[in-house]
Specification:
With 162 residues, the chain is mainly alpha-helical. It is built from 4 helices and 2 strands. The protein is elongated and about 105 Å long. It has a two-stranded antiparallel ribbon with strand order 1-2. It starts with 13 loop residues before the first helix and ends in a 17-residue tail after the last helix. Helix content is 56%, strand content 6%. Its main location: nucleus.
Length: 162
């Protein structure tokens, strides 16, 4: 019992299309690897997503340092030059990415510092707060002696409920 055939047409649902792309892309990369191993074939695969992202597979054994015994000195030199150019491009790309990440992190730090600075109390504000806090809103003498204040009521009426 095999799988049923599906009609090959564009998948309209964006989410389903993306899921299918990921699954089939991984299957395609696996098939390329299997073909290179089983048949000792040189395989290169390039896939671009709808967003322009690149997915690639290559099994060039020479780039991995395998099967070099059959190469001439000239071919080895060419391979070495290709590898050096590739390393230069990789390092350049890595440097750009690290610089971009550094810029983003610096921007985040600056934003955090701005927020902290906005939330900080200045010296003058702190002095004003301390001055307000040190004021006695109720003089202890009045409270202790039981001296009537404008807010005290000696003639409180008791309300009995029930």
């Amino acid at each position: 019992m095999g799988r049923g055939k599906i009609e090959i047409k564009r998948i309209e649902n964006t989410t389903n299309r993306q899921v299918t792309f990921c699954k089939r892309r991984n299957g395609l990369l696996k098939k390329a690897y299997e073909l290179s191993v089983l048949c000792d074939a040189e395989v290169a695969l390039i896939v671009f997503s709808t967003r322009g992202r690149l997915y690639e597979y290559s099994n060039n054994k020479h780039l991995m340092g395998d099967s070099l015994s059959s190469l001439t000195v000239k071919e080895l030199k060419q391979l070495e030059n290709r590898l050096e150019r590739g390393i230069t491009r990789i390092r350049s790309k890595k440097e750009v990415e690290l610089e971009n990440e550094s810029v983003c992190l610096r921007a985040k730090i600056a934003e955090i510092e701005r927020v902290e600075e906005a939330n900080m109390v200045t010296g003058a504000e702190l002095n004003a707060i301390q001055a307000l806090a040190s004021r006695n809103f109720f003089t202890p003498n009045v409270i202790e002696r039981g001296t009537p204040t404008p807010y005290s009521h000696h003639d409180k009426k008791i309300l009995h409920l029930g």
